[in-house]
Amino acid sequence: MGKFIVRRLLLLIPILVGLSLLIFLFIRLLPGDPASAILGERATPESIAQVRAALGLDRPLHEQYLEYLGGLTRLDLGRSFLTNRDVVGDFLQRFPATFELTAAAMIFALGLGIPLGMFTAKRRGSWIDQAGTVISLVGISIPIFFLGLMLKFLFAINWQILPDSGRIDLVHYSFERITNMMTVDALLAGSPGGFVDALRHLVLPGVALGTIPLAIIMRITRASVVDVLNEDYVRTANAKGLPGRIVDNRHVLRNAMLPVVTVIGLQTGLLLGGAILTETIFGWGGVGKWIYDAVVASDYQVIQSGVLLLALIFVLVNLVVDVSYAFLNPRIRYS
Amino acid sequence: MSQASATIGAERQERSVGLWADALRRMRRSPAAIIGATIIGFFVVVAIFAPFIAPFDPTRGNLADSYLPPSWEHPFGTNVQGQDVFSRIVFGTRLTLGIAVLSVVIGVSVGTFFGALAGYFRGWVDAVIMRSVDIMLSIPGLLFAIAVVTWLGRGVVQIAVAIAVLNVPIFARILRGSLLALRETDYVTAARAVGVRGPTLLLRHMLPNALGPLIVQATLALATAVIDAAALGFLGLGPPDPRTPEWGTMLSDTYRYLNSAVYLAFFPGIAIVLSVLGFNLLGDGMREALDPRLRR
Asked: Which chain B residues contact residue A306 at CB under 8 A?
């Protein structure tokens, strides 16, 4: 087990070096000069040279890369071209909001996807199963932004039963931001009303972001449970008279969950990318909205660093998933 | 193929159809594949005959006609510029299918090239290519596409390239995996034993047998490409000319006045969902038809 984790950690190094190199080159190879992008069209050659020197763009590439790497180790990814604010600081301030949203989406996807997958697998071939297959395929085919817009129109604008944007009702609830996750902060501040309001704000963006993972998890769970149901040990468990619920939970679900765990890791990438769309539609002040604003304003420094930081989080989540997979599956642990 | 079927000839005698004929036969029996192919066929026809189907010029609008709700004259209504939404969706089919096909063609070509190099040569070539694949796959897809488009600048070809970049590592990994498995098969050993070497072995004997998973993935990649292209458009990274009819951009135009004109978002969205569903159904049907384990 220890060996496996060490090997997996060592594999991270080339990925991280490659990522940093890719993103370093990204901004250096941009068509047009970052300096002229900052200064706009009316910049004089002198002022461009000045900004280039200030950004270190006039030095040899390898020197620039080493300094960039040095900055990385100090968690210094530069400053926004536009606001001159520290990029890492801005990211860390916004990330809890994105984390809260993706966690809500994942809870929705897992909480509904696994039982539905199990349910349809046990009725394999029935009309319920076929309906489930069709619905999950439609779920995979709906773009997040379209689903988000339609949910917003129906529930927030037309029926007005859920808030249309934002993370909390700022007029009624103001409490100290400790973790910057509204649900957690509301609880810490002892405001049950605030907690409920924060949850209500989470529903629409969480469902919009979680629907594709829900459909994928449902499909994977179904396929995996169908495989496990054919195993000898399930027949044995049934034959020796174990109650159905115990067979389901102890024998079927535990073994069927392994592929699902892998998919959870892969879905994180989809969620982090999808967060840009969801946060834009629902005015959710997280990393996604921040990157979207940077795209609109051509703030390359924020785009490249935001992408790097989200990729880093994606890689780390997959590391955790792989390790937990090895923990769950003894066949990997001992090989 | 001929050597392989000779060795197991006895029990295959009664039904000795090739893999492709067999796959096609089973696809014709799969409802998913048929519905998917019908939907895609429909969109292809719309794309080809767009000028005959669309009642209005998609780029020209009359400001006096802005925000007309759906009617006989404008079945899907008109947008803020008074352009006919139905005509824009019809012409948008061309752009969407074009970007999807272009991005998958680039992605498959480049991806299979590197995948073939890695799977055939092994050693350090394999190591370098596969580590690069790992790096590319470690960046969440849509973010990567955004980064590439901001880097290349806005434009239709740039969007296709950005989406192709996402596909390259996927196809490289699939082909490499198939080639590694094929290396160990008896017919490749047999071909080697009679002196087949190098490109002939790769192109004649190995590649044709690795095509199945590639074709399935390519079809599913078309679905993702449609979504990604629309997502880029929605985020304001679509074609630079705002008059260009692009489904994602059409959605993005409208989300600020959802309450007054929801039909503006509804119809382009349905077009996206339908085309994506078509490619997904077709891909799923193909996967089942080409999977030898599911053969009966």
From this structure: 143
